[in-house]
Amino acid sequence: MIRKFIPGTLVLSLVAIAYAQTPAAKPAKPRAAKPAATAPAKTPAAKPEKPETAAPAAETPAKPEKPETATPAVEAPAKPEKPETAAPAAETPAKPQLEPAVIKADSSYALGLRMGSTFSQQFGRFGLGAGDINPENFIKGFMTAVKGDKSEVGDDKLQAAMQALGDLLQAREKEAATANLEAGKKFLEDNGKRKEVTTTKSGLQYEVLAKGGAEKYVAPKEADKDNKQFMVHYKGTLISGKQFDASPEGDPVPMTLQVVEGFKEALTTMPIGAKWKLFLPSNLAYGPERRSADIGPNSVLIFELELVKIQDAPAAPDGGMPFPMPQGAPGGQPRQ
């Protein structure tokens, strides 16, 4: 086994070195020789026995140790991050299976609701309301037109009826204008006596609900270059307390100075961040003109107005006004 790893010459050298380093054993005592028959011959001393030294065991050379090279630490591969999967979208609930009869009933109501809203906006501004309509004949005439059938009433008779209705509405509006003017005048007189209310030279009355900061609107030197818009929250009511319009909840809505005079005066007077309660005499609002089914002629209008900020206005689309004008939403609901 040694020769397998070490050359023979090197083996002999190792053995010699091993013997040289081993001490010699003491000589054993000579054994007594038996007397011989003849003259005793001189018996030489026995050669000292070689010490019984065990031949050194040939050390099996250890296999050369491989240099202790530091095994490079193998970095455990990072676990691949799980892709950020979007939360599963909520399952869209299955559409309810409606019976044909239910579909017909509910969709008919929806169409009627939409047509009624449009009718109210178109004819309400002339003072025409639900009390002026015979529901049975209204539906009858509506269905005749939908079916394309011939009218049961002649054109002359229909024309005469519509003319009479117009005269009736005109006379009623005149009465309403007078009544509203008197009621508004009395309201403003009483309201102006309250210590919380300030009345300006124009007749505008306002009550400060929140003071706001020091910054206000600054008019440009050239009026035709006024391109500011006012971001506001507002709610409009009549002196009866009925709400006729309101801005949507959330972000403020933009307005320019192309509004009624009372609104314009407030926007250019109140500080940014202020909230005022405005009382607009009819001459600073819509005057003797009916604006909607709710806003009659010579109506005093009350607004809660909050001025959030003033900023540059974008270009008006197609020459129109880039803002909603308070004028009365159907049913007095906030604008969408």
How would you describe this protein?
By secondary structure, the protein is an alpha+beta fold. The chain has a domain at 189-332: Chitinase A, domain 3, CATH 3.10.50. Helix content is 29%, strand content 13%. The protein has six helices and seven strands; from the N terminus they run αααααβββββαββ. Strands 1, 2, 3, 4, 5, 6 and 7 form a seven-stranded antiparallel beta sheet that branches. Strand 3 (228-238) and strand 4 form a beta hairpin. The radius of gyration is 57 Å and the shape is flat. Mean pLDDT is 79; it is low at 1-62 and 69-74.
Strand content: 5-15%
- Overall geometry comes to flat
Question: Which stretches are poorly predicted, pLDDT < 50 over at least 5 residues?
Answer: 1-62, 69-74
What's the helix-strand series?
Answer: HHHHHEEEEEHEE
Rg value: 57 Å
Task: Measure the end-to-end span.
Answer: 101 Å
In the CATH classification, which architecture of the domain at 189-332 applies?
Roll
Question: Tell me about the biggest sheet?
Answer: 7 strands, antiparallel
Mean pLDDT: 79
Count of discrete alpha- or pi-helical segments spanning 4 or more residues: 6
Regarding CATH, which class of the domain at 189-332?
A: Alpha Beta
CATH topology of the domain at 189-332: Chitinase A, domain 3
Q: What's the β-strand tally?
A: 7
Structural class: alpha+beta
Percent range of helical residues = 25-40%
